[in-house]
């Protein structure tokens, strides 16, 4: 009895403390009802928000909440916190930082899930179910009524991996200082790693390339390219689009592959080259 | 024939209206010489500002080796003048006076792992620049409330990075952070119409205010806002001094 009381008090405390953050954007039920006609367009499939009500209630509401504010009943026990759909800010996008994701991006996130969080892979949903849920997610935020999704960044055709490119990728890693958070070996132990916070002021870990976990927004080379060119909005991970040229970006992808624990031809090449971790104290351009 | 006449009459009317509008507009600009001026002070002992530990980034620590960097939430100059207070007109502006004539582009520089200035005031829709003078990577990460229409973004600026150019859609006091250097903390103060930021002595002057009755708001990041009603007459600057109580 006593512990239960304690637990519920703890939960209440957490909710009360988190409330001012979430209440910035509180949308009323009538705001939401007014956007019930929201649609999504993914390939040839058109999603309708109102058709997702059952699925949302069954699969999503526990974490994301009745009004999509991420304050579902599991909110106090989950970290990272469930996404607040009312803000319209999403990590995994094909679009530049500070813009809305495309319908396809949201559908991909539902299917893929988010590694190292409580968001599972919903890969059993049909394309229609996902499209309807995307429309439903969009109806929570007024942003979709006022803004269009950003223009997806262009990803040039992937070049052939060469030792030269991996070496150059290492230079890029050193120049834009990925190691500040991710560490020189990619072990998420850079000098700034321990103080990182998300936009709600909660501690957040940098991605560890070496522990075998999946990159947050997909494992393909194109998806890794996209992560550092779009940034993960709502987190400390910025966009490097202004500071890494498209060709260099591919070199960086190859170097990141070489850091990862999973076997790859990049890793084999880097081993053959005898590549050492970057030296944070080396003068610019002299890695 | 009558149709031609009508057309001509219409054309002349439009021309006259245009000329009148142009003249009126000039008059507004000429009247825009009015000023609001004053001093912002802190009443009481300035709160202790914690020192900044930059030891995690040797570049930053070295750049600040000769002075002890402190937080800048309350900066008090000699005589109790309060620096970095943003002053703007919150009521009474209308029409053309709401849009400030374009002057120099506001610049927010990352220098010695600090933001210079600590508070950058600007107009809604005004283009501003974020630059870096540092040989260490920063990420520039403003965190507005997206419900206002201001959308958060997050961009890296490694050494030698080109300036980031942006603008904001709505009035809001927006906190800016660098996740790489958690002590870096500043503000974008986005307001409508003429504005000023108090200097090291707490003095300020809001220029380009047409004659009229206004409410001036002073915003300080720790102490919040204060307002005062002023009357600006042609050729006579209005005065509005503010005093914030130290907490």
Structure description:
- The complex is a heterodimer of chains A (287) and B (247).
- Chain A is 41% helix and 3% strand.
- With 287 residues, chain A is mostly helical.
- Chain A folds into two domains: 33-146, Orthogonal Bundle (Cytochrome Bc1 Complex, Chain D, domain 2), CATH 1.10.760; 163-273, Orthogonal Bundle (Cytochrome Bc1 Complex, Chain D, domain 2).
- A two-stranded antiparallel ribbon of chain A has the order 1-2.
- In chain A, a hairpin with a 2-residue loop joins strand 1 and strand 2 (45-48).
- In chain A, helix 10 (246-259) crosses helix 11.
- Chain B has two domains: 1-31; 34-245, Immunoglobulin-like (Sandwich), CATH 2.60.40.420.
- Chain B is built from two helices and 17 strands.
- By secondary structure, chain B is of the alpha+beta class.
Assembly state of the chains shown: heterodimer
Biggest sheet strand line-up of chain A: 1-2
Which strand order does the major sheet of chain B show? 5-11-10-7-8
Rg of Cα set of chain B: 22 Å
What's the rounded overall pLDDT mean of chain B? Answer: 88
Helix/strand-derived class of chain A?
mainly alpha
How helical, in percent, are the residues of chain A?
40-55%
Following the backbone from N to C, one meets helices and strands of chain A in this order, namely HHEEHHHHHHHHH
Which spans of chain A of ≥5 residues are poorly predicted at pLDDT below 50? 12-24
Secondary-structure element sequence of chain B?
A: HEHEEEEEEEEEEEEEEEE
* CATH level 1 name of the largest domain in chain A: Mainly Alpha
State the fourth-level CATH superfamily of the largest domain in chain B.
Cupredoxins -  blue copper proteins
Largest interface by Cβ-Cβ < 8 Å: A-B, 38 and 30 residues
Helix tally of chain A equals 11
- Total number of domains of chain A: 2
Report the end-to-end length of chain B measured between terminal Cα atoms.
79 Å
Give the DSSP E fraction of chain B (strand runs of 2 or more residues): 35-45%
The mean pLDDT of chain A is: 91
